[in-house]
Structure to design on (200 residues):
């Protein structure tokens, strides 16, 4: 249904509408890119951490990403079976396991990052390169300040909470629809985790 011009103008001045449209477009594109990664969005996060080497052990990685340890075990099993990561004994504690990306895992991450950059370019296609850099910088500054007061563990949590939040403004209703579409990859991963834990 086509909206009246005055309604469209009102929506375009609404921050919630703008954020919802951007999140929907990016999440939809990113969802297609990482659909083939074992574990979906969570698997992608684990692989990213393994490639960076930021969180070495399985327990530290689970705590950092806010993933249940049982779910983390399933994710690592799937990623290891796909040849993307390895679990090696920690030299400092032989009872612990360090998560290390394989050559195939690093190559996969490079490919995924290239595709995600293309998704970002499409989402920001209305802006020229200078405007994109300014937009990223301002958005990052605003997001960092908000996160200081109300931190979240990861991007999946952001999308889940956005989808679950009530929308009180009638003008923001398109953002509500956007959040539902945007949450689909993370929501599917969440349902899969709950099924594995016997919660569904």
């Amino acid at each position: 249904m086509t909206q009246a011009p005055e309604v469209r103008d009102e929506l375009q001045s609404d921050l919630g509408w703008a954020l919802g449209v951007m999140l929907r477009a990016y999440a939809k594109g990113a969802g297609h890119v990482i659909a083939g990664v074992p574990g979906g969005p969570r698997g992608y996060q684990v692989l990213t951490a393994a490639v960076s080497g930021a969180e070495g052990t399985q327990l530290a990685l689970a705590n950092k990403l806010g993933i249940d340890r049982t779910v983390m075990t399933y994710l690592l099993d799937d990623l290891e079976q796909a040849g993307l990561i390895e679990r090696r004994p920690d030299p400092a504690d032989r009872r612990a396991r360090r998560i290390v990306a394989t050559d195939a895992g690093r190559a996969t991450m490079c490919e995924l990052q290239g595709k995600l950059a293309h998704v970002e370019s499409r989402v920001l296609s209305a802006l020229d390169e200078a405007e994109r850099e300014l937009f990223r910088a301002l958005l990052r500054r605003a997001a960092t300040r908000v996160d200081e007061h109300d931190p979240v563990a990861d991007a999946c949590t952001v999308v889940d909470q956005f989808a679950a939040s009530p929308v009180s403004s009638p003008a923001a209703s398109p953002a509500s629809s956007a959040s539902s579409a945007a949450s689909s990859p993370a929501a599917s991963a969440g349902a899969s985790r709950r099924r594995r834990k016997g919660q569904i």
